Hints:
By secondary structure, the chain is α/β, with parallel strands linked by helices.
Amino acid sequence: MIETIIYDLGGVLIDWNPMHVYKNYFDSEEKLNYFFENICTHDWNEEQDAGRSIVEATNILIEQFPEWEQPIRDYYGRWTDMLGGPVEGAVEIFKQLKDSGRYKIYALTNWQHDLFNIPLVRYNYLGWFDGIVVSGVEKTRKPFPEFYQILFDRYNVDVSKALFIDDNLRNIVAAEKLGLQSIHFKNADLLKEELVSRGVI
C-alpha cells in the first residue's frame, strides 16, 4: 500500500542536460569527450550538488586548465540553456498522481543550492510537491543514506509505504538498500506502465 511518492527531478521531471549547450560547442568529438571526462566531470559537478559554490568550482578548474577557461565559464554562465523544459509525459503523470489526492508527494534532488531557484521560478509544477529536499541545502546528496534519511525524518515518511522514482540506477540501488520500493525511470510511458502494474494509478 503506497502512501508516499518520492521523485527525483533532473532527468525525470526536468530535462537538464549539459549537451544542450555543448553538443556543437567544440570542433571535434575528441575535445567534447576530453572536456567532460577530465575537466567538467560528473564528480566535479556533484561537489556543487553537495554544497560547493559555483564560483569556487569554476575558479578551481580555470586554475588547473587555463587554456579551457571559456568552456569552463560557460558551464555555469550558460547553465540556464541546459534546462530543456519538462520531461515529455512525466509531468502529466505527476499531475494525475497529485490530483488523485491519495499520496503525499516529495522531491529528493541533487541540485546546487543557488541554481535550484531557477527551475523553481520557471516550472510551476514544482510547487505541487508537499516538500522538496535539495542536496545543496543539506550539504549531502544521493546516493548517501543520510540524504534520504533527511526526507524520511522531516516528513515522517513510512519507508515501507513509499515509492521512489529516479533515472540514476546508482540512486535506485541506494534507495532499495534503505527499504524503498523504487522505479528506475527511463521514459514516461514505461513509468506509467509500472505505476499501473503496482496499482498506484
